[in-house]
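Running low. Invent one:
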Amino acid sequence: MNATITAVGGFVPTSILSNETISETVNTTVDWIEKRTGIKERRLASSKDQGTSDLACAAIENLLQNYEVDRKEIDCVLLATTTPDHLLTPTASKVCEISRLTNAFGLDLNAACSGFLYALEMATTMIESGRYAKIIVVGADKMSSIVDYEDRNTCILFGDGAGAVLLEKTDSEYGMMKSILRTDGSGTSALFVPAGGSKLPATVGTIVNRDHYIKQEGAFVFKKAVESMSSVSQDVLVSNDLRIEDIDWVVPHQANLRIITAVSESLNIGIEKVKVNIDKYGNTTSATIPLCLWDFVADFKQGQNILITTFGAGFSWGATCVKWGVMRKHKPVDFSKNDKKSEYTLTH
């Protein structure tokens, strides 16, 4: 028994935050942002009450309708997110309700930027056990809810979005291969939101000190990301008895174009084989990997080997390989003709 990706979905809000707009509000320039990060624009939730659950549901709806998936057959929803709607009650519960996945159970998983890969591994093992047949894995984050738009070092990086995949059981050779996941808690304070949890609950002081926003030691995180993604990628190739020459595509976490380029150089793989969309969306944290799969799904052919690698807060990182299998038939739906979905831009 193996698990294979048979459908993908995605969603990004229509509201665009450009480098030009950012340069008007903080001490930076368009040229500085692009050279430092590779980001040209990022998407932001279109309204203050649009939460992570709304982003996730839009991506799932895109998947369900474009691939004609029966909602009643979904066994489970694994939602990777670092920006849940609420601290208490899983966001996945709301997602199952809104998406009318009445036979599925749902749970949240927080491993920051590595969350989607961690959830993908969990879903794979659940299917390989034989107890589940169809699982939706979704990565969604409303990063604008925890970004300090007065901090030029972090506000340039992040955007909002969601992506989802459907994993199904198969007895073919295609599908998920072995993964390697890693965690190093000593790096926690280098990339985190100090307040709002049980360790430092919200007070007037934490609000005044802006402790509910992302804090990052950029140079240290950059170095650790390159080292960790490069090393774990090489290890996972060995684990799957593959060489870098066997890899058709690399789908890396979209945190910074310089990180992506450094990792590709370390692996000695041409940048033309590396999927990049950070220029359009910025770092959407849990959503970067599935959004890349959504954006470039037409490029992936049956039997091709795809290397996925990521790094995030925690520190958390990992890599896996996928032998791309047979996708469900794709029948794009024109959501603009559906009043209930008119707020979504689901074009793929």
Observations:
- Confidence is low (pLDDT under 50) at residues 336-348.
- The longest strand covers residues 160-170.
